[in-house]
Amino acid sequence: MGSLLPLIGVAPLSQPFDMITMLGFLILMGTVVNNPILVVDQARRRLHDKTLSVQEAVSQAVQTRLRPIAITTLTTLCGLSPLVFLPGEGTELYRGVGAIVLFGLLGAAVVTVTFLPALMISVLKITERRSARSRA
Questions:
Q1: Is 13 exposed, middle or buried (0-12, 13-18, 19+ CB in 10 A)?
Q2: For residue 100, what are the contacts with CB-CB under 8 A and spacing of at least 6?
Q3: Model confidence over 118-128: pLDDT tens digits?
Q4: Which of 1, 4, 61, 107 is at 20 to 30 A from 45, Cα to Cα?
Q5: How far is the C-alpha of 104 from the C-alpha of 24, rounded, in Å?
Q6: Is the CB of residue 30 less than 8 Å from the CB of residue 37?
Q7: 27 in helix, strand or coil?
Q8: For residues 106 and 77, is the Cβ–Cβ distance under 8 A?
Q9: Where are the transmembrane segments (predicted)?
Q10: Residue 15 lies in a domain
């Protein structure tokens, strides 16, 4: 990505992988872990509280959490973009943290609303089949 910046008139970026950049992974883990837990918990609650199919419960859970996930991702993207993409005084030190958190949160949001529901539907269907077999 840094080598493409000269095409739009911005100086190329290079970022060392140092201790401050590694701190970005800790920040990212603390930020990202909440959304998937809430989606799974909400889907399981909807599945037990109502007579919904697995797909409907997961779909409703994702629909409920989509706006908070999108708003969090968008505000973080807007807040960290200047730090990551605009060179200037003081940005050299914290650019790595910003890049890790920015792209990690963006990737986690995409995974949370696409891959996680598909995986959850598969797992819940398998669990549902096993519990139906054990009852019979």
A1: middle
A2: 21, 24, 25, 27, 28
A3: 999 999 899 88
A4: 107
A5: 9
A6: no
A7: helix
A8: yes
A9: 20-40, 69-88, 100-124
A10: no
Given a cut of 70, whether residue 12 has pLDDT beyond it is: no
Provide the token pair at 132: 């139906």
| Number of domains comprising the chain | 1
Six-digit token string for 105: 């949160």
**What global pTM score does this model have?**
0.79
pLDDT digits over 81-118, tens only?
998 888 778 777 888 899 899 999 999 999 999 999 99
Cα dihedral 36, 64, 99, 93, rounded to 10, equals -90
> Between the CA of residue 40 and those of 26, 44, 90, 132, what are the distances in Å?
23, 6, 40, 21
Tokens of 23: 């701190």
Q: Which two tokens stand for residue 81?
A: 């973009």
